[in-house]
Amino acid sequence: MNLIAPPAPAVAQAASAVPERSYTHHEARGETAQRSNPAVIHRELTSLHVPVGGRVLEIGTGSGYSSALLARLTGPSGSVTSVDIDPYLARWANLIHQQHGLDHVRCHPGDGTLGHSAGAPYDRVVAWCTPPLLPRTWVEQIADGGLIVTPLPIAPVPKLTVVATIRVTDGRPHIEEIRHGGYVETSMSGTETDSDVPLRWVDWEHRHPETAWISLAWRDRDDWQNTGARTALQLLRGAAHREPYDGEPIDWASWRTFAASTGDPRLTMASLTPDALALGHTTPSSAAVVQDDGTIIADASDSPSLVTLRTWLTCWESAGRPAPERHTPVLLPCGSGTGWALTVS
């Protein structure tokens, strides 16, 4: 069980002053679906240590509730700049902030991975959506000694993320803490074609008779027709072998972080039904995953991928099912110079 600690006193005080439902269920706008759990918002803002009078950049405006909390934390001597890919959300958040007398918040439509250079430098950056890597723009737009709190992938497949607290000194980011968590992937368009399918790193999908998708960490070895992804998904959908996991119920947060820490290039994330995630190992001719309900699915009882998956699970149990926080995070500069990728060991 992942328990969320109580928020810091300053965050709790800010939360008591912000009418949450006037943002999430505004009488004129209606309910805002694009919003995070308030308890998780409070946790991330506790880690952000927002100073009074600080300048904050927020990525992902959503309902506007989180930027209202940030405005309370900075006080009127500070400022909050919020960016959302959806202009509709940014416009409505601006109106609601004005209705509540928060004049030091400005919400802008735009690509959050680019930050907002006009308001830089910022003392803090917080993101409510997951970029493919830590963007260089965020690091460049933060003041020396500033903090970034953001979800980041720990493998090039969807749904494998942690929330990282990052300190930037002399223009270089350093991880101070990671913990379980994550949010929807950053979008380039503000629209989703299918809410059951991740926005990034899906290598093949079916939408009939029901949605199913697969993501391969080895996509760069697949061909231009995605033959490997199509084959692996077909093997899993028509799996000849199923068995229950012989152990305690899967701790998904621990298991997925451990699987990513193996660094195995054959790591695979899939969803065979809309309400279940599966993580495991695939090759161009074999496939085996364990679903979050504890069901192991493989193409055959003697599948090479099943052998590897069982080995991973045994090592995970032997390690004591480590929490995400027990792993060692490393930021690696990307060759393209666009940012830093996060890995764990």
Keywords:
single chain; 345 residues; alpha+beta; Rossmann fold; 7-stranded mixed beta sheet; 7-stranded antiparallel beta sheet; 19 strands; 30% strand; elongated
Give a structural overview.
The protein is of the alpha+beta class. The chain has two domains: 9-180, Vaccinia Virus protein VP39 (Rossmann fold, 3-Layer(aba) Sandwich); 204-318, no CATH class. The mean pLDDT is 93. It has helices at residues 9-17, 20-24, 38-48, 65-74, 87-99, 136-140, 227-237, 252-261, 304-318; strands at residues 25-26, 30-31, 55-59, 79-84, 105-109, 122-127, 134-135, 142-153, 161-169, 172-180, 204-206, 212-216, 241-244, 267-273, 276-282, 287-291, 295-298, 329-333, 339-344. Helix content is 26%, strand content 30%. It has a seven-stranded mixed sheet with strand order 5-4-3-6-8-9-10, sandwiched between helices. Strands 11-12-14-15-16-17-13 form a seven-stranded antiparallel sheet, with helices on both faces. A hairpin with a 3-residue loop joins strand 1 and strand 2 (30-31). Helix 1 (9-17) crosses helix 4. The radius of gyration is 21 Å and the shape is elongated.
